[in-house]
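tokens incoming
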């Protein structure tokens, strides 16, 4: 049987877009940030609870297209329990996957479930939808007061 990875990836994105994981406000968050992608109208608030440098809990709230919601949902799932430094390293790899595609030197298979977003790089209009949550994460961890905009 020939499994079409594109279809499989799309199903996961639709599932996470419709039923985002870790959705809601996080009580006791130590870091929060807001992100906005004016090109598409996606917006989200990210809540992170750091304990000893590790992400003890992470959640988000927001509204936007399926890609932005799915990316945020997948990100929170991938980051729980990770060290702050690991989270930022992952940001770099996901960002390379989304903006440079196969030329970025990142093998999607090494990114686990986040690989489902690997096809997004072919759609420049969608890249900002997918990177919004990650830019917001970096802003939250670096405790920047300014709201994040992908512009
Ligand atoms: Zn979007």
């Amino acid at each position: 049987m020939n499994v079409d990875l594109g279809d499989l990836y799309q199903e996961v994105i639709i599932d996470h877009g419709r039923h985002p994981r870790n959705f809601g406000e996080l009580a006791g968050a130590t870091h929060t940030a807001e992100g906005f992608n004016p090109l598409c109208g996606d917006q989200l608030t990210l809540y992170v609870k750091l304990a000893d440098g590790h992400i003890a809990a992470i959640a988000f709230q927001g509204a936007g297209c399926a890609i932005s919601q799915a990316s945020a949902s997948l990100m929170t799932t991938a980051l729980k329990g990770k060290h702050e430094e690991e989270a930022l390293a992952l940001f770099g790899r996901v960002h390379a996957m989304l903006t440079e595609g196969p030329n970025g030197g990142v093998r999607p298979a090494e990114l686990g479930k986040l690989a489902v977003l690997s096809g997004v790089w072919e759609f420049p209009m969608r890249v900002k939808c997918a990177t919004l949550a990650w830019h917001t994460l970096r802003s939250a961890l670096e405790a920047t007061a300014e709201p994040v905009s992908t512009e």
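note: The pocket of zinc ion is lined by residues 37, 40, 42, 64-65, 67-68, 129 (CB under 6 Å).
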